Target: ABC-type uncharacterized transport system domain-containing protein
Amino acid sequence: MRAIYKIARLELSNLFYSPIAWLVLILFVFMTAMNFTDVLWGYARSQEFRGGGLSDLSRTLFFDMTGRGLWPKVTNLLYMIMPLLTMGLISQEFSRGSIKLLFVAPITSRHIVLGKFLGMLMYGVVMFVVLLVYVVLAGCWIESFDWAAVLTGLLGLYLLFATYAAIGLFMSTLTSYPIVAAIYMLALLTFLRFVSGLWQEYTFVREITYWLALDRRAGTFINGMICSEDFLYFVIMTTMFLGFAVLKLQFIRERRSLLSKVGRFLGVFVIAMLLGYVTSRPMLRLYYDSTHTKSNTLTQASQDIVSKLGGGLKITTYVNLFGSVYNITPAKVMTDIARYNSYIRFKPEIEMDYVFYYYTDTTDGYFQQRFPHKTLKEAAKEMAKFQGVNVNKYVPLSKIDTEVDLRDEAYRFVALLERESGEKTFLRVFQDAQRVPFETEISAALKRITMKLPTVGFLSDHRARTITGDRNRDYSYMVSEKLFRTALINQGFEVADVKLSRDPRLLDHLDILVIAEPMEPFTDTELDMLFRYMESGKNLILAGKPKTNGYLKPLMDRLGLAFEAGILVQGQDQVEKGRADGPSVRGSLPSPGSTKQEVEREYPVSLYLCKVTDEAKDLSRLWSVLYRQTRAPEWPYAIVMPGASAINQVEDKGFQVTPLLIGGDPTGWNELETIDFINEIPQLSTQAGERSGVKTTMMALEREQAGKQQRVVVIGDADAFSMGEVMANRRGILSANGGLIMSMFEWLSYGELPIDTSRPNPIDNTMTIGAEGAESVKTILQWILPALILLGGVLLLIRRKGK
Model:
């Protein structure tokens, strides 16, 4: 051990007696200081200008992976500078001939390698002290600084530095030319960065090449997570390359056959791969999430779901070569599996399987145009060539048709979740920017096969709005559209189309019934069935529309409620005020000099904008979110109702009544006379029975009934959660109607769905340093500190030369 320490100390002194080590250190300090102080100064200035508004500063400064964080920048910097630092560790000994002195000294090859490696680690400590200074300064200036997460990232970077040092040390044993050693190391690092994409279509080597990949290992630490697999990866890889270096020096001192040399190298490699395989087994992994918000860990709701998944669980992903929306190739299997790592952590026995097949409708016009005069198999070969994959890895649909029916999923990319006990469900991809399912959707699918979840029925008798139609007035998109992320079926709900005339017994299997604007009266028999449903204590949504509210009156009478006659309109003062205040309320600004009479309304006054009531904000988690959105001081959202009725309580039927939505305009009224809201300007007429004031457009009712906590929602506009309104985009109006849907069904499902995957808000949101102070720090760290290091290096080298 003493010999190793002496060699390390000598190596460290040699490093600081060479210009390259000083230049690398100066470059490292300058680049890291520039990145750190630029972000620091930018946020200090933003805080002063805006008076706050910052969030999650620890992540932003250090471990933000989108490009601003310091730690990801350091990984790229180490990738570039480590070949320069390590290229002469052994190669210079060869070129100068001093290696012979080491060989005749009473030390072994192991002493030489470990001594030089320890010297590099000591030099790394000097570099990382600079990074630690940044951490300490940030901790002093950021309130509630996330010390644990930031220091975890620093640990990962040092482990990366150590692995780079071991690789560089081995490469320097292969040649007597330092620059060649640097090129060798750069080539190997590049290989280790991209090896995870090599030979992934071969199951036998897939896990080996994916495990070997170096690029993602430090990222786990940078994100604030310590995983035993990643920690041991650095240990194994560092030890393996040090072992290679020892063997290389030993073979110079000893005469051995080529077969013997290759065998020993392979032996070290095989042992390392076996250790890597064992330590990467899910059941042997240990985790520690050091972030304050536990952003690397499943939320408690998801953990509770996984804990109830007794027995085995298999996830089979079906990938169509001709698939649309989203697709992967066999080379991306391990990357796709990584999306489930958070679940595998809590249920390591999850079995993952991938089935690659090809199928498309050969009678479709697009197929004939894209693949003229070709059979399906010939088209598959052409498509495989286009995607750069081996068509032999894909099987025809006929070979998997007996296993699963993919017709309802339109043969798109889909995962089948199946428990050992037989329960199964599909997990889909979505037609949005993100495409893949996130924790909310994955946990909802798992919950669906774990327990019975609410079934929502939509009454379609009497031309009521339905989930099977594709008109703007219908609800199919937000309920049963498989490509829509927040559709009820993708959030765990079971949905059903209900026709009393076809199957009245279906009501018995529902948990929530939606009756939205029937266009004809119910028969007495149908009303009896609906009354029995209400008296059974099950939940209900009634959605009306001004011209057809009469058909819901028998049901409203049972609730003690009534729709107010007329159509709600915005007051004229509110319309003109919105136009004058700016585009955030009603539209674009009027042209300069326009009179009040010359300003044209962009939207009819019957487009009623609503906000969440104070009473509703504590109703549930999502109602609280919706309340904050519609009450935001700047750019508030609104629940948009294009033609709504007010709702009044006319009798106490034993319900606890809570108003949910009210009009945003206290001067609005129920218009009874105007029919054409485009060409006519309605006027308040008290003689006609019109009354202005704050109007309630949505109510929640709750009572104990038949041993259940019955919940009912009544809304004065069935359009508010229709396909047409949810997808509407009006200039100057921020709509929160999509959030209204989830808020309603969250409350009606007693918080069961959608899954609550929200996390605690970051607490490191305030800086105590101002813009002027940050600018001074920028000057000191970015310019003065590198200059002092440069001066120290010059003086030391001059002194060395003088001696």
Observations:
- Residues 102 and 363 are 77 Å apart (CA to CA).
